[in-house]
UniProtKB/TrEMBL annotation, chains A, B:
UniProt keyword list: FAD, Flavoprotein
InterPro entries per the UniProt record, alphabetical: FAD-bd_oxidored_4_C, FAD-bd_PCMH, FAD-bd_PCMH-like_sf, FAD-bd_PCMH_sub2, FAD-linked_Oxase-like_C, FAD-oxidored/transferase_4, Oxid_FAD_bind_N, Vanillyl_alc_oxidase_C-sub2
Identification of the protein by name: FAD/FMN-containing dehydrogenase
Domain of life: Bacteria
Chain segments carrying region Disordered: 1-46
Record's compositionally biased regions (Low complexity): 18-31
Alphabetical list of Gene3D superfamilies matching this protein: 3.30.465.10, 3.30.70.2190, 3.30.70.2740, Vanillyl-alcohol Oxidase, Chain A, domain 4 (1.10.45.10)
Source species: Oceanicella actignis
Length: 528, 528
């Protein structure tokens, strides 16, 4: 193990990214770390010394390393709330280099923070000041591994590397007359590796599932320096534990996904979409069941919007043409799709006529063209942008069983009202999946800053309620660094113990994305 | 730890089930096992002593224990090739009792073999003479945990215990006007716990996925005595590692699934099915693509049959009315289904007309009624029974990418012909999933016994070929005890190391279903 050397700093603009002191991880008084292994769950991490950095520079070459000011692009996150630190940005060219980096860092006990498109909303992809890992990590960027290795329409599959941008993967599938259905607002910059590491969701989950459901196999680099080679194009493979699903959603804490075999689908030849006012969350759910009965899997998306979001859009993005003015209190955007000859449009019209008759939909807009359909989606997908401009006190990505969603919305409103009746709630999202984005804003005219003090209480209130209703505090965004306390509070104790045991087994040096995805503290003890 | 006591025997009919000697697991010369832990990957197991057996009897009561001749039903397997051994059959009433049993056995280092419906074909559910575990295990039967706890059509979900028989789960869903789509030949006796432990497949995977894809969450008992409580009815939950998918398919080597939250679907109001002659595997695949383009997910099943299987049916089950006589060399059974008004029948007719025009189908039978449709499936599902009556030398459950399936069939025939040109091959199965059951039989008139000596060579030939084509030696049946050597030969070394590390982490005493699902030998070393 190399001796300690002076610390490196990387400046991101004017911010010093490496903290001066890392007391809990490199105490002066402990014995030789090689001889005194850290207690389980809290491996002792070290700063990257020149020996490691030189080894990485030699391994990766000039294109493969970014340092100093050039590192800045890897240290931002989408909402600009957090700024990361890095000893160096490592940009491997392939799985073997990735594995070599992990092995070098594990041997040196230097933390690694994997980074793909950098669009995550829970801080899993960067190490901000004051958060683990304490010594500035090596940030491992997958952006250079950006080849589409194979598109095989015959197999309804393609193999893409972790650095491929989602929109490029979609385009490659389309060029082969297939659909890769993963779709979300950040698809122009999110990369496959991050989408899989966080098991991303999006607008088509109702029909096609989450990122994990779209993945046939993965290639991954592991901290022992080996490469897991699991890029099979198989629908069925029961030979051994499902390591694919273990790595997907583990947020880079067990290994780094370097490529994936992804499922493709027939491109729907017919689509129809409607934006409909509906009296309440209850009627929105009844409408969902009606459409699901009428279309089964062909019901592709079912989104809920609240008037608050529409008001924000009108206020902050006034040029965006809204489908219904004035907006109804609740609206849904429903899309159906299917093969040629499957009569999506007339069947949707018939179903909606029944919905109106049953009082489930008041009025609405049926897209008359592909352009109109795209415009409905533009409105839906602009909601997060308007939210950001208004500035939420607290944002939540929750899920609940469908049978309890309406109750969550009603009780949530009451509970937030008890905190401060002037708070505004924008509750919207993927109702078909039981997944709501539930954002709480200051009263009109007030600034977020004046309400920061309420953030903790609001978060606790929303997450306690969702847990009580059998839901999850993290539906599709992951745990990252911002929700580890929630995982500790709401996670099943046996599950947390299993997670800790798996983490120790596969990453004994504890270098893989420390501080993310796991609750951090020692797990609860097993029962007597 | 209790002292050694005289060994117990359980007789299954005339067979003594507990071996007299267990040299590799209880050597006389080793020091106190409590003080000399076994090397990783090879924990030292012990025989169940009276102290443990009495503790289990006290915990479970008379209904919860089966011993002596009463244990026999748990020690058979469907093909009667293997007979298991047991120190005792433990039949817990709930997850807590299950966890308690596991903890007691882990503390006593006594192996546990979990048992559900007992229909597995690869020996994962029993411990035959000469196979691990060497001391006779406690067989943990989930059959008493057979409640359907909840059916929630609003959530398109139900919660069932591990001992529920698949057909009963299907019926419970149907009573709530929903479909639980898992369907396979043994559904009248297979139980949910085993179906999940082995990630079962079946005839509807093409549309609905494997058992794992139908599972929202699980409850499981763990060897540390705790209960994993993960029965959430959520479509999206990214809070932590996906332990559900790790336990599903791990064949009882990490824990025992005691209940599951399962996905339900709308019941298809319309179905149509056809049995079609097709010139070759290539045309069968082209027909699959044609139907998938025309029906997308509504193509529910796509099965391939070879004339050999039809000949076996005619010979061994002559009363079964076959749809086409004489049978064509290759035939497919295709089924489509969808909601009311989705015009399955006329669309299937149109698609088949196109298929005939393009030379993909020669002639065939379109089911004219629900009874005819059911009859087509009866023929398809009788094939394994006729196979058993004929007696295969070697049976294989393989998968390959669709683009390589035809090549597998052609090369397989050549390779088997080189072993002995008189061997007969019955190649059939779930072509839509790339999953074939590939069974090799002695020449007509010869007995299986005369060809036993070829079994190893045939297996190696088939599995080498499928591996070369990027396929799997275990598509839907699992690894069990009969395919551990295949896993060692074909498994990715990094994957085998990860599996071994996870196994050690979660089952440090090594008591969970030893000898099953893992390659057994120490895993290959990590790279330098």
């Amino acid at each position: 193990m190399a001796p300690h050397r002076p610390r490196r700093r990387i400046a991101n603009g004017d911010a010093v990214l490496t903290p001066e002191t890392t007391p809990q991880s490199t105490p002066q008084s402990t014995p030789d770390p090689d001889r005194a292994p850290a207690p389980p769950g809290e491996p002792r991490l070290r700063e990257a010394d020149e020996a490691l950095l030189n080894a990485l520079r030699a391994l990766l070459g000039p294109e493969g390393v970014r340092e100093g000011p050039d590192a800045a692009p890897w240290l931002r996150e989408p909402r600009d709330r957090l700024t990361g630190r890095a000893a160096l940005i490592a940009r491997p060219a392939d799985a073997e280099q990735t594995a070599r980096i992990l092995r070098l860092c594990a041997e040196a006990r230097v933390p690694v923070v994997p980074h793909a498109g950098g669009t995550g909303l829970v801080g899993g992809q960067l190490a901000p000041q004051g958060m683990a890992p304490e010594p500035a990590p090596v940030v491992l960027s997958v952006d250079r591994m950006n080849r589409i290795r194979q598109v095989s329409p015959e197999d309804d599959a393609m193999i893409v590397e972790a650095g491929v941008i989602l929109a490029d993967a979609q385009a490659a599938a389309e060029a082969a007359d297939r659909l890769f259905p993963l779709s979300l607002a950040s698809e122009g910059s999110a990369r496959i590796g991050g989408l899989l590491a966080t098991n991303a969701g999006g607008v088509n989950v109702l029909r096609y599932g989450n990122a994990r459901d779209l993945t046939l196999g993965i290639e991954a680099a592991l901290p022992d320096g080996s490469v897991l080679r699991g890029l099979k194009l198989l629908r069925k493979d029961n030979a051994g534990y499902d390591l694919r699903h273990l790595l997907i959603g583990s947020e880079g804490t067990l290994g780094v996904i370097t490529a994936a075999a992804l499922r493709l689908f027939p491109r729907p030849a017919e689509r129809a979409a409607a934006w409909l006012g509906t009296p309440s969350p209850e009627t929105a759910l009844a409408l969902l069941h009606l459409l699901r009965g009428a279309f089964a899997e062909q019901l592709t998306a079912f989104e809920l919007m609240h008037r608050t979001g529409m008001d924000f859009l009108a206020e902050r993005l006034p040029d965006l043409r809204q489908p219904m003015t004035p907006p109804p209190e609740w609206a849904v955007l429903a899309e159906v799709s299917g093969p040629a000859g499957s009569a999506q449009r007339p069947r949707l019209e018939a179903a909606l006529a029944e919905a109106v008759e049953r009082g489930l939909a008041a009025d609405g807009v049926l897209a008359e063209s592909e352009a109109q359909r795209a415009q409905l989606w533009r409105v839906r997908e602009a909601i997060p942008e308007a939210n950001r401009k208004v500035g939420a006190i607290s944002s939540h990505d929750v899920s609940a069983p469908l049978s309890r969603i309406a109750r969550f919305i009603a009780l949530g409103r009451e509970a937030i009202g008890r905190i401060d009746p002037a708070l505004r709630i924008n509750c919207f999202g993927h109702l078909g999946d039981g997944n709501l984005h539930y954002n709480v804003f200051p009263p009109k005219g007030a600034s977020r800053g004046d309400y920061e003090r309420l953030r903790g209480r609001i978060q606790r209130t929303v997450h306690d309620l969702i847990a009580e209703l059998g839901g999850s505090f993290s539906a599709e965004h992951g745990v990252g660094r911002l929700k580890t306390a929630d995982l500790r509070r709401y996670g099943d104790p046996a599950a947390l113990r299993m997670m800790a045991a798996i983490k120790r087994a596969l990453d004994p040096a504890g270098v893989m994305n420390p501080g993310a995805a796991l609750p951090g503290d020692p797990p609860p003890a097993a029962p007597d």
